[in-house]
Amino acid sequence: MSAGPNEPSPEVVQKAIAWLVRLQAGSASAAVWDECRLWREAAPEHALAWERLQGIQSRFAAMPPVPSALAQQTLDGASKHMGRRKAMGLLAIAMGTGCTVLVANRQWGETALLADLRTGVGEVRRLVLADGSVMLMDTSTAVNLRFDEAERRLVLIKGRIALTSGADSEAQRYRPLFVQTPHGQVRALGTRFQTQVQEDGTQVQVLSDAVELRPQAASQVQLLRQGEQAWFDALGVHELKAGDGDGDAWTDGLLVARSMPLSVLVAQLGRYRAGYLACDERVAQLPISGVFSLRDTERSLDLLQKTWPLELRRRTRYWVTLVPRG
C-alpha cells in the first residue's frame, strides 16, 4: 500500500517511530529534542506523522501527550487481545500507512517497543529465568528471550543487564548461554557479567569466571576473564583493560564517583529520571567523588548542591541544570 499525496510515507513513519524510540530512552539531550523538532518542521508529512502519533495517544491513554508512552500503551493494550504482530498492524493503520513494520529496526531486526522484557526510566528489575539464570535489568532496558532446545540466547536491544548464569538443570542436554547485541555476542562460561549496549558498541565487564566475545564481523573470539572489561563493535574487540571495581554498583541502586567529571556524573543520573538534566559547561569538568543514589536522584542532586559550589536551576520539574553557585 503506497501513501497518498497528503499521507506520510512508510519511510517517514519509520523515521517518526525512530525519533519516538530515541526520545524514549530517557537520556536524550536538549540538542536531540531540538533535532527532532527540526525534523518535524522540515516537511508537512513529517509534522502529520508526528500529529498522528499524538492523536493515537489521546485515544489510548488518559494523560498528557508523551510520545514514548504512546506506542508502548497502544501496543501493550492491543497485544492482550490480538497478539503483537496484529498490534503492530493496528498502530500502522492508525498512522494511515497499513505498514506492519513501522517499529522494526530493519538492520537489527529487534525493537524495544515489542521486547519480551522492558524497564522504564528509573526502573531496575530482577528476574529469575527458566534456566535458573538471574538477570538484573537496568533503567530503560529491553531484552528478548530466545530459548530453545539448542541454546539460551538473550537479545539485549538496549540498556544494560547483569547476568548470573544458571545451571539449566532441567534441560536434557547442554545449552550454551549467549547475550546477543547489535554488535555481536557474548558467551557465558559459567559466569557473572554485565553487558551494556551503547550507541556505537557494546561494553562488557566480567565479575566472576569468564566470557567469550565474538564481534559480528570477526572470525576470532576474545576471552575475557574475571576482573576484566572490554568494548567491542561489529569489527572487533577494543579497550581490553582491568574492570571498574564499582561498575556494578547500579545493581544496588548506587553510583560511585571517583574524581568523575560532573558532566559524566550528571549524564549517569539523568538516565534514571524523566526529563532533561544537564550542567553548565563552566562546571562540566568539576571532579566529583562520592556515592550517589540512583533510586532517589533528587537526593543526589541535593547532595551535589550542598557539597560542591553548585546550584540547581529549575525551569520546570523536568528541566534541571547545575550551574556555578552565585
UniProtKB/TrEMBL annotation:
Q: Which InterPro entries match?
A: FecR, FecR_N, Ferrdict_sens_TM
Domain FecR protein: residue ranges: 116-212
Give one GO term, molecular function aspect: sigma factor antagonist activity
Taking every annotated instance into account, which residue ranges of this chain make up the domain FecR N-terminal? 14-54
What name goes with this protein? Anti-FecI sigma factor FecR
